[in-house]
Every structure is written in structure tokens, then in C-alpha cells.
Specification:
alpha+beta; Son of Sevenless (SoS) protein, Chain S, domain 2; 4-stranded antiparallel sheet; 28 helices; 13 strands; about 15% strand; Ras_G-nucl-exch_fac_CS
Length: about 700
């Protein structure tokens, strides 16, 4: 009720020329929510219903276990089901206005007016879930739903049954099961080799977003073949699609799907996903050997047909094959550090040149580019080795020329003498981060989680499982020559930066200087945050939170720590780093539409990225219960790694200061024990635990 309405109400009771002394307005809001699943209302109370309500309120899918209970009750384990899901949200807002007219404390009149607003939102979805079927005339191939839930964390929902087309390919309305020669048709008249560009990474995420998010722990899927006086359909030639996306297949079928023909070329997204995760099952050199063998069979087939030279089919095959090798070299060049791999690649390209001499220049450019990248990698790894040796030498000299930790600190140069401006320091940290990122091969993430010598998973026992390790091993997956050295060195850089932060603070005996260094690093961390350099940001925050630094209460009392508290909140590990993940999404959004090179930088908190990939690898089985490869997992791994690839390709736009970068990577740092001893000397231990710790450290130092 507005002022005029209120005045009219009072005047109708008391007459004209009244003065309103006081006015009080109250309102009441009532809301009602109704969730209907398969036509059955679900009350939003209790623990399970609260979980559904919380998920819907935040725009997320409700927990799979709750949805599975409903699906199991509908009979999904026994037969195809029709799944109808509708969501209706009704809200009623009641505005109650009460007017009480009083004079001298005596109520003369009371009036009530209510205004009610009803809002209703309804959405519905209908799906038919059926077993995947496969049939080739006159053989019968049926695919049924078993009674045992799948152990796979990411597996395939059943799709509709399929029909066979005239060309021998099977199709479905909700999914597809096709022979291994199906795929996307290429341009048979092209005359140049297309070089893969970074755009194939940029649009990968949009395609993988369409990968169906299936309910984890669905019913087990198995394939039964029935003989009908004819030869059965070979199980190794079946590719399973859902909504046009490949979700499962035998390993041999995936290899066949990778081989180009005269009128077919595999999608770049499929190639990246399979080349990335296929090494979980066989070495890259073995994969290349199989692909070359299948390519030879395709060429021989065309030659036997006798018309290859006439219609250009053979020429098209070899051109597509060189294009396949070019994409492999572009996306996973480190695979070709293996001498056997390189030799095989040269042999197959020479065969292609023999069939089509016009490919000679393309192959020469391909080899030149590959050799250049591998040479650059070798020089970088040699640089890392020299860097490690120089750092070790400086640390040894530091220990030899000092008798106490305090003397050791005085020999460490102050970072502010090299770089007084924390913003410039943040720029140089970004240079180091992007350089080190650029040398990490995408396959290193998968190799880090593989055992050094996995068993042969090509068999038909269907017992393949996810092999992983809780740490980053020094060896590669599937025995590859390419190891995870670049990934490991990047993790070591994070640790080094954290210890450098702590070392630079404790080297100062005066509290005022320690306060100055703390605020210096906080400002550098703030600039890293603004840039999008989250890895350096977290390393600095970790250094400031190390025990020898965090315990300096008298020093922290003089620090303007409000800015640091904001940074700590952004990198808070609670709720699985939810604050950081939200900030990262904002940085990615800024980068995607940025025209300024400075706004395109996204350097993720690397340890968390590795952790996410590790748990994705651990949580999803490599094979489904029926023995097929769980390609949905491949899509998910490829999606995250592709995003990383796009981040590491960004050029650093800031001016480079070689002397600062050299200092950041080579200056000596103190060990954790030395840092603790110096910290106790700066501010004496206050509790028994710290006193015992200090006593132990001094004893160990004197014994050495």
C-alpha cells in the first residue's frame, strides 16, 4: 500500500486534515514446491528428498543413487522402460497489509488487505531406455541387460535397438552400432596435407560437452550371440554410439576406426581422445604398427580390385594416411622419441611417397617440423638438468661456507634487490610458468597414472581395469620412451617457489624487514591472481602458510593481512576448492573472448588439475563388464586435457627480464629443517611441542 492509499484509508475513518504519526507494514511469504517423478509426487522432506531438493535448487543433477532406485523400481534391470520426468515448481507470494488507525493509544479502526501472486514453472522430459541390439541378416545378435550393476563409474545407458541398412551398416534412432568402416567421409579430391591447428583443441570441449552424462552404476550390459545357421557378426567390429557419440567399442574396432580409407577420415576429436588414452592398453609404437598393417591391407585391397590407379582411390588413401601421421605428430610429437616409432613412421611415409610422389614435400616438411620440436625438447631437458646441478652446487656451497642457519640465511640474496617491484616479479613468474607448461606433453597425464609394464589387455577375457598409481612415477605408461619428466619438473617448480618465499622471509633478522617481505609476496600474489596465474598464486600462498612462516605471530601482527585473507579465501581447499574453481571458470570465460593477450592467460593450479585427472582415471573403469572399451572415459579425459593444451599455447605478453628469471630458478633455498631452526631463532618457541622440535633440530645440526 503506497502513501496515498494509506492516507485515504485514514481520512475515511477520521476525516480530512489528519496527520499520520506512525505506519507499520508487514508481509508474509509462503512457498510450495512439488517434485513429480514418473507421475509420482515426491515429498521434499527427509534426508534423501533433501538431497534432491538441494541439487535442483543449485541447478545440478540429483545424486545417482536416488535416481537409480527409481529406475530399478521401474524395471530397468529386466526390460526397456519409458522414463518420464517432470518438474513442477509452484510458488505463492501473499502480501498482507494491515492498517490500524489509533488516536491517543486507542484503536479506532483496523483493516486488512491481501494480495496473492501465484507462479508455476513446469518442465518435462521423456526418454525410452532400451537394450542395445545388433542384428545382421540372417544372424541374430541380441544385447540384453544383466542383473548385476556395473562396476564402471562411467558406462553406457542402453540405447534403442538397431536395424541394418542396405550397405551393411546398422543404425538406431537413439544410438548407432556400426561396422568398423563407418565414419565421416573425407574430401577425396584434396591435393594438400592439412596441418592440424589449435582450433581443433578449441572446439573439442564443445563437442565433448555433448557426451552424455550417464547415471553411474547402471545395470550390467552383455552381448549374447545366437547362431541361426549363418556366421555371427564379429564382435570386434562393433562400435556403440549414443546420440551420435561413440561411447564403447572393442579395442580392435577402435583401431580400425582410426584407419583412413579412400572415402573416410576419422574426426580430429576422436583421434585426440584415442591417441591420448589408447596408451592405457598398448604402446604407441604397437598402435602405429597395427594402423600401418591395416593401411597396407586397404591398399592391397584396392590394388587387387584393379581400378585403384584409374579412379584415384589409392592416391586418396595414401594422402589420408599421411594426414593421419601429420595429426599424430602435431598432437603427440613426443611419441616419436622412440627410435622404433620414428623408423616406422619414416617407412610408412616413404611408401606413401612411392604411391604419390607429390607427397614428398609434405612429408619433408612434416619430418622437419617433428625433428625441430624434438630437438627443442632435448635442449629444454638439458637446461633443466643444468639448472638442477647449479642449484645443488649453490646449496652445497651455502652449507660449506656457513656454520649456523643464521649465517646461511645471510648468504642468500634478497629477492627485492633483484626485483623491487612485486608486479614485475609476477610477470616473470608468469614467463616461467608458461614456458614450463609448454613442454608438458598431453600424454604425460595419462602416463603418470599407468603402471610401467601393464599386462596385455588385448585379450578377450574382458578383465581390463584402470591401472593407476597414487604418485607420479618416473616411468611412463605402457613402457613408452617418453616419460613424465616435464610434468614432474613443473610440480617441483611449484615446491621450489614455495620454499623460496619462506627463505626470503626468514633471512631477515629484523621484524620490520620480514614484514616488508611478507607484504611484497602478498602483492606479487595479488598480481598473479589478476593475471590468471593461479599456480604461482597458490605456491606463494603455500609458502606464506608454511609452518616456519605461519608461526611468526609477532611478525604477522605488523602485516596488513586483509589482502592476504582475500587470497587465502580464493584458494581455500574446503568444498574441493570451490572458490578457486569458480574463479577459474571466470578466468576461462575472460580468456575465451579476450582480444588483449594479457587477458588470455589461464595458468591452473597444477596439482589440483593432476588430482582431478587422477580421480577421473581411478573412478571410471577402462573396460565395461562386457569387455568393451569405455570410450566415455576417453572423452572426459580428452576434454580436460584439451583445455590444458589450449592454456599452454598462450604467449606471455609481458617484458622478459632474464636476470630475474635466472634468480627465481637458480637461487639457493633452505630446507624445511633449516627454515624451522631459523624461525625458532627469530621468535622463540612458546609451547612444549615447538620447544621439543627446536631441541631436536639443534641436536641434529650439531651432530652434522
Amino acid at each position: 500500500m503506497d502513501e496515498q492509499d494509506l492516507l485515504k484509508t485514514v481520512e475515511s475513518v477520521l476525516g480530512k486534515n489528519c496527520v499520520i504519526v506512525d505506519c507499520e507494514t508487514t508481509s508474509t511469504v509462503r512457498e510450495e514446491e512439488v517434485l513429480t517423478i514418473n507421475g509420482v509426487p515426491v515429498r521434499l522432506d527427509g534426508n534423501e528428498q533433501d538431497a534432491i531438493k538441494t541439487a535442483l535448487s543449485s541447478g545440478q543433477v540429483p545424486p545417482c543413487e536416488l535416481l537409480n532406485q527409481i529406475l530399478y523400481q521401474a524395471g530397468i534391470l529386466r526390460q526397456p522402460v519409458r522414463l518420464e520426468t517432470s518438474l513442477s515448481i509452484k510458488s505463492s507470494i501473499v502480501h498482507t497489509e494491515e492498517v490500524s488507525v489509533a488516536r491517543d493509544g486507542r484503536i479506532l479502526d483496523e483493516r486488512v488487505r491481501e494480495k496473492k501472486e501465484n507462479n508455476c514453472y513446469t518442465s518435462s522430459c521423456t526418454e525410452i531406455w532400451e537394450p542395445v541390439g545388433s542384428r545382421r541378416q540372417p544372424a541374430k545378435v541380441t544385447q540384453k541387460l544383466g542383473d548385476t550393476p556395473s562396476s564402471s563409474g562411467c558406462s553406457i545407458p542402453p540405447a534403442s535397438s538397431c536395424k541394418l541398412t542396405a550397405d551393411g551398416r546398422s543404425t538406431t534412432s537413439a544410438g548407432t552400432i556400426s561396422n568398423s568402416d563407418s565414419g565421416h567421409h573425407g574430401n577425396t579430391s584434396r591435393t594438400t596435407i592439412r596441418t592440424p591447428s589449435s582450433s581443433c583443441y578449441d572446439d573439442f570441449s564443445s563437442a565433448t560437452e555433448e557426451t552424455p552424462n550417464f547415471i553411474k552404476a547402471p545395470p550390467q550390459v552383455s552381448v549374447d550371440q545366437h547362431q541361426d545357421n549363418q556366421e555371427d557378426l564379429a564382435p570386434n567390429s562393433v562400435l556403440v554410439y549414443r546420440d551420435g557419440i561413440l561411447v564403447a567399442a572393442p579395442l580392435e574396432a577402435l583401431i580400425q576406426h582410426m584407419v583412413p580409407t579412400s572415402d573416410y577420415y576419422p574426426e580430429q576429436k576422436f583421434l585426440f581422445a584415442f591417441l591420448l588414452s589408447g596408451r592405457l592398453f598398448l604402446k604407441p609404437v604397437d598402435l602405429l604398427a597395427k594402423v600401418c598393417h591395416l593401411g597396407d591391407l586397404e591398399q592391397k585391397k584396392l590394388q587387387l580390385e584393379g581400378r585403384a590407379r584409374d579412379d584415384g582411390k589409392l592416391t586418396c588413401v595414401v594422402r589420408n594416411f599421411v594426414q593421419l601421421i601429420a595429426e599424430w605428430v602435431e598432437t603427440f610429437p613426443y611419441d616419436f622419441r622412440d627410435e622404433q616409432m620414428m623408423m616406422m613412421m619414416k617407412q610408412v611415409t616413404q611408401k606413401c611417397i612411392a604411391c604419390d610422389p607429390r607427397l614428398r614435400r609434405d612429408v619433408a616438411n612434416l619430418l622437419q617440423t617433428l625433428v625441430g620440436r624434438l630437438t627443442k625438447l632435448e635442449r629444454y631437458e638439458e637446461f633443466l638438468e643444468r639448472l638442477g646441478q647449479q642449484e645443488l652446487s649453490q646449496t652445497t656451497d651455502l652449507q660449506q661456507h656457513s656454520t649456523t642457519p643464521s649465517e646461511m640465511c645471510q648468504l642468500v640474496q634478497d629477492v627485492t634487490d633483484i626485483c623491487p617491484n612485486p608486479t614485475i616479479l609476477a610477470y616473470q613468474l608468469t614467463h616461467i610458468e608458461l614456458e614450463r607448461l609448454s613442454y608438458i606433453g598431453p600424454e604425460e597425464f595419462v602416463q603418470a597414472f599407468s603402471k610401467e609394464n601393464p599386462p596385455n589387455l588385448m585379450g578377450s577375457d574382458g578383465s581390463g581395469t584402470s591401472h593407476h598409481s597414487a604418485h607420479v612415477p618416473s616411468g611412463s605408461g605402457a613402457g613408452d620412451v617418453k616419460k613424465t619428466r616435464n610434468l614432474e619438473s613443473y610440480v617441483q617448480w611449484f615446491n621450489r617457489l614455495s620454499y623460496m618465499v619462506a627463505t626470503s622471509i626468514v633471512r631477515h633478522g629484523k621484524k620490520k624487514q620480514r614484514v616488508r617481505l611478507m607484504e611484497y609476496w602478498i602483492e606479487a600474489a595479488r598480481e598473479c591472481f589478476n593475471i590468471g596465474n593461479f599456480n604461482s598464486l597458490m605456491a606463494i600462498v603455500a609458502g606464506l602458510n608454511m609452518s616456519p612462516i605461519a608461526r611468526l605471530k609477532k611478525t604477522w601482527a605488523k602485516v596488513q593481512s586483509a589482502k592476504f585473507s582475500i587470497l587465502e579465501h580464493q584458494m581455500d581447499p574446503s568444498s574441493n576448492f570451490s572458490s578457486y574453481r569458480s574463479t577459474l571458470k571466470a578466468a576461462v570465460w575472460r580468456s575465451s573472448g579476450a582480444t588483449d593477450e594479457r587477458q588470455r592467460i589461464v595458468i591452473p593450479f597444477f596439482s589440483l588439475l593432476v588430482k582431478d585427472l587422477y580421480f577421473l582415471n581411478q573412478g571410471c573403469s577402462n573396460r565395461l563388464p562386457n569387455g568393451q572399451i569405455n570410450f566415455e572415459k576417453f572423452w572426459q579425459l580428452a576434454k580436460q586435457v584439451t583445455e590444458f593444451v589450449s592454456w599452454k599455447q598462450v604467449r606471455c605478453p609481458f617484458e622478459r627480464h632474464a636476470n630475474i628469471i635466472k634468480f627465481l630458478q637458480m637461487s639457493p633455498i633452505l630446507t624445511e629443517n633449516t627454515l624451522s631452526m631459523v624461525s625458532f631463532e627469530l621468535e622463540q618457541p612458546e609451547n612444549n611441542h615447538d620447544k621439543e622440535r627446536y631441541k631436536t633440530l639443534k641436536s641434529e645440526h650439531n651432530n652434522h
